[in-house]
Amino acid sequence: MSESLKKVDVFQAIADPTRRDVLRLLASKERSIAEITSNYDMSRTAIVKHLKVLTEAGLVTGQKLGREKVYHLKLEPLTEVKQWLDYYEQFWHNKLSKLKFLVENENEDK
Amino acid sequence: MSESLKKVDVFQAIADPTRRDVLRLLASKERSIAEITSNYDMSRTAIVKHLKVLTEAGLVTGQKLGREKVYHLKLEPLTEVKQWLDYYEQFWHNKLSKLKFLVENENEDK
DNA sequence: ATAATATGACACCTAAGGGTTTCACATTTA
DNA sequence: TAAATGTGAAACCCTTAGGTGTCATATTAT
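Predict the joint structure of the above. Result:
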């Protein structure tokens, strides 16, 4: 038993474009709430809510340093997404290469 | 110009557990709406809505055969997810292998 | 022809998601 | 110590998500 207090599903956490963008921001370096917020055209409160979701999904953690709270990225939960994707990769190589060809060359069955 | 009429983001489409499960069902074989519905404790109408979302994300397609409508899986949109994940894999191998070790062996920094 | 089956199309409900503003409090900085 | 900065927390709003039930219609099966 460990790390299982995730209140938010990682798939749900990454469903929102803003949240994916925040992850991208934190990938380069850790940032304070104010710093993150400065990148978006929305209120700090809204960003904090997104950070809460990301935190509960285990994708970020925040620690207080003085008066600011600095968030950094945590990649572990992405393994779940990767594993989920891996399941479909078996079909990928069998079918997708063909399908992709068909799609790119459009309506073959017309 | 092709396939770009996706009204629903693939990340949003896979955010719902039921929808991920429907994808899993369709991975084994194509199924009619009634057949899909029989696997869940919810109304056909609800399932149809999920199928609509999946369709608009490009993850499934349905074709009418007689009086039933048969859905089958389409994997292409998952490439977007895969690419997104790949971006983070650069950190994965650098940091995650270590992190994973730390996590699995719990609180090292205590 | 009739009955059973499968789906389509609505109207409707409730909770949750994503956003806002406002105010209070803690911590720096001048 | 006074002002500025960064955050926490609450109340509120609107739209959408996910679900329901009902009725009509098309297609099989008896």
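Residues 100-110 of chain B have pLDDT under 50 and may be disordered.
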